[in-house]
Write a structure and sequence with these properties.
The protein is of the alpha/beta class. Helices cover 32% and strands 24% of the residues. The chain is globular. The structure holds nicotinamide-adenine-dinucleotide (NAD).
Length: 349
């Protein structure tokens, strides 16, 4: 059986990646669309062979409750809308896959987790990087100490953001600037490769004065995370410079490795170097490219079919949200912030 997905929100990600991604999916198929634009939805439904009777809008969305073709709902809306639609989907008795960032506050993440629990439905946050083979190999090398213990990781995710009127630059819809949108990849991937939770963060933010894009949200964030095993992660994210989406892990027995790019949809590349005697050997494994959205859609579908907990459950999104709140607090106060209340969740199931 294939799991039937309803896609909520027909923006760039849904049209450019998720719907095409079903073409490579083994266990999922798109069966319903939810959009505020009926004409667009009709066209997209025809393109993907979706029955036009399975088109919903934001008002009648709750009627999916009585549609047995829909097993799961994938929320692909602006960040601050995730909570409402995750809760409504759970109340309609559907499993929910939610785009990142999960929400715009830790309290909202908790309410989403509770709503899905109460409804007895699964909740997964769409952290595609945790399903992607290059990043999974980096995770294995960090955790197996292939080139020694990784003590330092540096990470960057940046892009020069355009249109000043877009929702990403409106705090009420985005919850923040570069950090929750793209900096989150550094944060989540660091936790993933290390398999640990940071105990302290130190951060600062900067926005170019007078740049109309950054009236409400921050342009650049630079932060450090300290992990219990001794690793120090130095990360930066910016909406104001050319795109760069990479990280490097530095180990103590003569090796470094990383990905450049690390967070793109395709053409990821692993790179590095390690010492053998007095020779430096380049690291450049070739790994088959995959459709990242098909992998995550299939993972969630299999969790539903086999009644398993997703690898990136709602708790994973909550954890990141708590850390982002600590990063903003550190930037505001100019002091390190301790994260004692964060319990370790096992991301390596
Ligand atoms: P987008 O602006 O292209 O699409 C958003 C959709 O929401 C549009 O169809 C828009 O019509 C609809 N919408 C409904 N109410 C709206 C409102 N009040 N204001 C603005 N739009 C409204 O955005 P996107 O790039 O598709 O991002 C959607 C979500 O997916 C975000 O949470 C984003 O963080 C996430 N995302 C994830 C990835 C990834 O790689 N996992 C990549 C891009 C975006």
């Amino acid at each position: 059986k294939r799991i039937g997905y309803a896609i909520v929100g027909l923006g760039n990600l849904s049209l450019g990646q998720i719907l095409p991604g079903f073409g490579a999916s083994k266990y999922g198929k798109p069966v319903a669309l939810v959009s505020g634009d009926a004409d667009k939805a009709k066209k997209v439904a025809a393109q993907y062979g979706i029955n036009p009777k399975n088109i919903y809008n934001y008002q009648n969305f709750d009627n999916i409750k009585s549609n047995p073709e829909v097993d799961a709902v994938y929320i692909v809306l602006p960040n601050s809308m995730h909570e409402e639609y995750v809760v409504r989907a759970a109340k309609a008795g559907k499993h929910v896959l939610c785009e990142k960032p999960m929400a715009t506050s830790a309290a909202a993440c908790q309410r989403m987790i509770d709503a899905c629990k109460q409804a007895g439905k699964k909740l997964m946050v769409a952290y595609r990087i945790q399903y992607e083979p290059h990043n999974r190999l980096a995770m294995e090398w960090v955790r197996s100490q292939k080139f020694g213990k990784v003590k330092v990781i540096d990470m960057m995710n940046s892009q020069n953001i355009g249109d000043p009127s877009q929702w990403r630059l409106k705090k009420a819809l985005s919850g923040g600037g570069s950090l929750p949108d793209i900096g989150l990849y550094c944060l989540n991937t660091a936790r993933f490769v290390l398999g640990e939770e940071p105990h302290t963060v130190i951060a600062s933010t900067y926005s170019t004065p007078g740049d109309e894009r950054f009236k409400e949200v921050e342009e650049t964030v630079s932060w450090q995370m300290h992990f219990p095993g001794g690793a120090v992660v130095s990360a930066a994210t910016s909406y104001g410079v050319h795109q760069s989406r990479r990280y490097r892990c530095y180990a103590d027995k003569g090796g470094w490795f990383g990905l450049d790019p690390a967070f793109e949809y395709s053409r990821l590349q692993m790179e590095g170097s390690h010492a053998e005697g007095n020779q430096e050997i380049k690291i450049a494994p070739s790994i088959k490219e995959v459709q990242q959205f098909a992998l995550e859609l299939d993972h969630f579908a299999q969790c539903i079919l086999d009644n398993k907990t997703p690898f990136t459950p709602g708790e994973e999104g909550l954890q990141d949200q708590k850390i982002m709140e600590a990063i903003y607090e550190s930037a505001k106060t100019g002091k390190p912030v301790k994260l004692q209340t964060i319990t370790t969740i096992d991301t390596f199931r």
